[in-house]
Protein 1
Amino acid sequence: MARRKEQQLPLRVLKKFRLIYGSVRQHFRRVEENCGISGLQLWLLQEIAKTPGAGVSELADRLFIHQSTCSQLVEKLAVRRLVLKKRSKEDLRRVGLVLSATAKEILQRAPGPAEGILPEALSALSEDVLTDLDASLSEVTGQLRVRDEKLSENPLSDL
């Protein structure tokens, strides 16, 4: 009987991972259906709306993604004329980003939260709970036979 309980606990935890992953995927699908852009692109638009004129490096830091990934996202949005590049008057080398009217409309009709449901849920946790979760997930990732640290920089919408 004790052996059966030991086997059930990892499966219960696995189900929670499935629930999280499935819910995140479902949210991203809803974003794409409603907005025609990816969840990460929506988050990027939201961050540009918060600070018009922000550059790619600043946005990459705020989204916790690699600068080259952010640059590619910005290019895709610029091609679709959702993001406009504006040169700084003070420093002509600096290019800031602003939203087009179409992008503003997309943000208004987008299902929230723009940053995604997992970042929102994590932000709602106390620091103590997050610290414990971080330590526990470090233990889990330490047990993985195959692990690519670079994957941690990929947006969830790309997994």
Protein 2
Amino acid sequence: MSTSTPDLRHLERALADHDEPALTADEYKQVFRRHAAGVAVVTLRDGDAHVGFTATSVISVSAAPPLLAFSLASGSSSWPALSRASTVAVSFLAEGQEDVSTRFATSGVDRFADGGWTALPTGEAVVDGALAWVRARVVQRTPVGDSYLVSLRALAHGVTDAQPLVYRDRAYHRLVPPT
């Protein structure tokens, strides 16, 4: 798969077939800023280097077979490495891990320098203290708009009893105990 910007011709053709008005990018962002999402860190090995980034787009796709997916902008600094990766680890962050999320969302820094992670025997890093993690094989990279939808098959996992870290409207939140 190419590491360049996704071919948008198929999307442009599909959009041209409809006359409905579309949301602007800012209107669309307004909607999803209000949608609460769990926070995950995706990591992989690229040669001798660790690569990782924060993602709030992780979704469960299927339980049988166990499939999950996330999206990543084609212009992301992590995309070239992800375009070559055969496996990744997805760490679902726990409350109190706001600093980890921020670090892995910051460009131009060594996201692994401060520690707080453990390498699996297969080389991928998982975040220490995460709510859960999944090691997965990349099964498909689908260009969609200006991003790629990356589909994964879950291979291994770990879970804790921690509470999830939630992101909404550009801020981190914690869940309140159920009533």
